[in-house]
């Protein structure tokens, strides 16, 4: 991915019967984001790795790189392409 891409990892935990996001962590690249998400999912119910095109004006183009464990349905839908 281009240098104008930011990467992050989002963990998820169960609160009152639903999945809620934890603190977002930045990553150095796609591979690092996936490694961090996989490791985080060993400690939390789930985690996902994302990339966002920072060159976009208005709506940023976000790509879901991978998801591990229990994550919200909209993340899984994003992995499936819709």
Name some characteristics of this structure:
alpha+beta; 4-stranded antiparallel beta sheet; about 80 residues; 4 strands
Q: Which overall shape is indicated by the principal axes computed on the Cα atoms? A: globular
User: Strand order within the widest sheet?
Assistant: 2-1-3-4
What is the share of helical residues? 10-25%
> What does the main sheet amount to?
4 strands, antiparallel
Describe the structure.
By secondary structure, the protein is an alpha+beta fold. The chain has one domain. Helices cover 22% and strands 46% of the residues. It contains two helices and four strands, in the order E-E-H-E-E-H. A four-stranded antiparallel sheet has the order 2-1-3-4. The longest helix is centred in the middle third of the chain and has 11 residues. It is globular and about 35 Å long. The two termini are 21 Å apart. The mean pLDDT is 87.
Quick take:
This protein is an alpha+beta fold and 82 residues long.
Secondary structure elements and pairings:
Blueprint: E1 5-15, E2 18-27, H1 30-40, E3 46-53, E4 61-69, H2 73-79
Antiparallel strand pairs: 1-2, 1-3, 3-4
């Amino acid at each position: 991915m281009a240098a104008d891409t930011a990467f992050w990892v989002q963990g998820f935990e169960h609160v009152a019967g639903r999945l809620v996001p934890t603190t977002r962590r930045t990553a150095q690249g796609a591979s690092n984001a996936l490694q961090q998400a996989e490791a985080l999912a060993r400690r939390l119910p789930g985690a996902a790795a994302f990339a966002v095109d920072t060159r976009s004006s208005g709506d940023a183009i976000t790509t879901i790189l991978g998801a591990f464990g229990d994550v919200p349905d909209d993340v899984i839908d994003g992995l499936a392409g819709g």
